[in-house]
């Protein structure tokens, strides 16, 4: 999608520190990390929120979770990690392209 930062990262038009890529998704380092390890997993397809999941996209999202689970240890997250998916303005979603924050590399306090 034109003017979407994450579509531009997927297309290679904006550089990113990639840690994983396959046909469906990309995982790269957040530019402003809030934990020692802060990765973003994005689908290559543009859509903004889980409200836009149909059956095909639900399978895609499930596949993303499975891939994260399978590769987390390679990314230094063997001690545990947190997945966060901000949805909409009140949750602080700033990029309208679905993304899963992957946080870890340190003990994480729980909060809202
Ligand atoms: P949100 O607030 O929408 O849940 O998360 C968006 C995230 O994208 C933020 O954590 C922000 O730091 C990250 N981000 C925004 N622009 C860029 C960029 O150009 N490159 C990378 N690697 N991360 C970005
Ligand atoms: Zn996009």
**Approximately what portion of the residues adopt beta-strand conformation?**
15-25%
**Secondary-structure element sequence?**
HEEEHEE
CATH superfamily: HIT-like
Q: Mind describing the biggest β-sheet?
A: 5 strands, antiparallel
| Strand order of the biggest β-sheet | 1-2-3-5-4
Hetero groups: guanosine-5'-monophosphate, zinc ion
Structural class: alpha+beta
Q: Indicate the percent of residues in helices.
A: 10-25%
Counting H and I runs of at least 4 residues, what is the number of helices?
2
Specify the CATH class.
Alpha Beta
* Global mean pLDDT: 97
Q: Flag low-confidence runs.
A: none
| CATH structural fold name | HIT family, subunit A
Question: What general form does the structure show?
Answer: globular
Name the CATH architecture. 2-Layer Sandwich
Give the total of domains: 1
N- to C-terminal separation?
Answer: 31 Å
Q: Based on DSSP secondary structure assignment, what is the total number of beta strands?
A: 5
Layout of SSEs?
Elements: H1 5-10, E1 18-21, E2 25-29, E3 37-43, H2 55-71, E4 81-84, E5 100-104
Antiparallel strand pairs: 1-2, 2-3, 3-5, 4-5
Zinc ion is lined by residues 1, 4, 6-7, 46, 97.
Provide a descriptive summary of the structure in words.
It is a single chain. The chain has 112 residues and is an alpha+beta fold. It is 21% helix and 22% strand. The chain has helices spanning 5-10, 55-71; strands at 18-21, 25-29, 37-43, 81-84, 100-104. A five-stranded antiparallel sheet has the order 1-2-3-5-4, covered by helices on one side. The model has no long low-confidence stretch (mean pLDDT 97). Bound molecules: guanosine-5'-monophosphate and zinc ion.
């Amino acid at each position: 999608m034109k003017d979407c930062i994450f579509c531009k990262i997927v297309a290679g038009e904006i550089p990113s520190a990639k840690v994983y890529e396959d046909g469906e998704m990309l995982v790269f380092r957040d530019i402003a990390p809030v934990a020692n390890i802060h990765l973003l997993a994005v689908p290559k397809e543009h859509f903004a929120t889980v409200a836009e999941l149909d059956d095909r996209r639900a399978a895609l999202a499930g596949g993303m979770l499975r891939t994260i689970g399978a590769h987390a240890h390679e990314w230094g997250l063997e001690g545990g990690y947190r997945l966060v998916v901000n949805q909409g303005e009140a949750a602080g979603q700033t990029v309208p392209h679905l993304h899963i924050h992957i946080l870890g590399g340190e003990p994480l306090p729980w909060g809202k």
